[in-house]
Design brief:
Elements lengths: L2 E12 L9 E12 L3 E5 L6 H8 L10 E3 L2 E2 L4 H7 E4 L11 H11 L4 H14 L15 H13 L5 E5 L7 H17 L3 E6 L2 H5 L3 E6 L2 E6 L1 H6 L4 E7 L2 H12 L4 E3 L2 E6 L2 H11 L4 E7 L3 H9 L11
Parallel strand pairs: 3-8, 3-9, 6-7, 7-8
Antiparallel strand pairs: 1-2, 1-4, 4-5, 9-10, 11-13, 11-14, 12-13
Bound molecules: adenosine-5'-diphosphate and magnesium ion (MG).
């Protein structure tokens, strides 16, 4: 598998500004590569550096030399060549809402010097791909949120990019529309032979990727397939809600061993055979436990293990 994107010890800081006295390090010594044809996800909480990396790869920010290559071109030295090979879908809508779907795509095509029958043919092809050919002459703002995102996707793909970059593409979509959007991405990955990099702060979305990188505060904290990352935990997760979590965690450690940790006022225990552990636990501390939850490890547990703190807000768990 040849690499499409390679990051080698990439560090990027925003320079000091009017309100910010010292440089802000947004990416800190990040290294990984993305292979041909992968659907790769960059997962991280707000402020972890996802958009910064997206802007660098989109050639909107300039990285240090030799830190990033795309299709073998150094991103700092050869942005013009790279720009021809990438398609970009921004987090915020870039559609002209008062124009029709087709008009939006025509404008995009002109930016890439596509015109005439070839452009119209490509628009039909790509709209068919995202199942919106019958809506080509509708005004963009009359489409549902999910459909508008698919028009954005069509726009990003119009010039046959070999690498498609999407920044939080499912923002504003409900969980059902999100699953549907990911299914379109999968179809496109196969049909157009495109490598996909998307960013998200939603765990369920990252679980659907081929491989992912987890970023936290500019650091790469985990890299691998979703299955390999959760398998690393090698145990079940038991989460306990109690009146005095710190006190009870210490007593659980004393009685059962292991390393119970208190995260966001809940006790987390990694335990092989978690289902058998629960009755023993409840029996050992009568009246002390408000609730117990048993689960297979998820990417959230991977994040907790790597950083020692909770993922983020409830939205991330949808
Ligand atoms: P994410 O997309 O994961 O939420 P960002 O890449 O937007 O994260 O931000 C990473 C860090 O860089 C944050 O600390 C953020 O405040 C900072 N940052 C982002 N954009 C700028 C900017 N234009 N100037 C200064 N700091 C910035
Ligand atoms: Mg962002």
């Amino acid at each position: 598998m040849s690499d499409v994107v390679t990051l080698s010890s990439l560090t990027f800081s925003y320079p000091p500004g009017r309100k910010q006295e010292s440089p802000r390090i947004a990416l800190n010594n990040v290294s990984f590569s993305i292979g041909q044809g992968e659907m790769f996800c960059l997962l991280g909480p707000n402020g972890s550096g996802k958009s910064t990396l997206f802007r660098l790869l989109s050639t909107l920010l300039v990285p240090p030399a030799k830190a990033v290559t795309i299709f073998g071109f150094d991103l700092k030295e050869r942005p013009a060549e790279i720009r021809q090979t990438i398609g970009i879908v921004f987090q915020n809508s870039s559609l002209d809402k008062k124009l029709t779907v087709r008009e939006n795509l025509l404008h995009q095509g002109h930016l890439y010097n596509l015109r005439g029958p070839a452009l119209h043919g490509r628009i039909d092809e790509i709209l068919a791909r995202v199942k919106l050919l019958d809506r080509a002459n509708d005004i963009a703002e009359t489409l549902s949120g999910g459909m508008q995102r698919r028009v954005e996707l069509a726009k990003g793909l119009l010039h046959h990019p070999k690498l498609l970059l999407l920044d939080e593409p499912s923002t504003g979509l409900d969980p059902g529309a999100r699953i549907e959007f990911d299914a379109y991405l999968r179809e496109i990955q196969a049909a157009e032979g495109v490598t996909i990099l998307l960013t998200t702060h939603i765990l369920a979305e990252a679980e659907r990727a081929d491989r992912l990188a987890i970023l936290e505060a500019g650091h790469l904290v985990a890299l691998g397939t979703p299955a390999a990352l959760t398998a690393e935990i090698g145990a079940d997760i038991v989460t306990i809600d109690a009146e005095n979590p710190a006190e009870l965690a210490a007593e659980i450690r004393e009685k059962f061993g292991g390393a119970p940790a208190v995260i966001d006022a809940k006790i987390h225990v990694e335990r092989a055979g978690g289902a058998e552990f629960i009755p023993a636990l409840v029996g050992a501390f009568p009246g002390r436990i408000r609730s117990v939850m048993f689960s297979r490890p998820t990417l959230e547990d991977v994040f907790i293990r790597k950083t020692g703190h909770q993922f983020w807000n409830a939205e991330a768990r949808e």
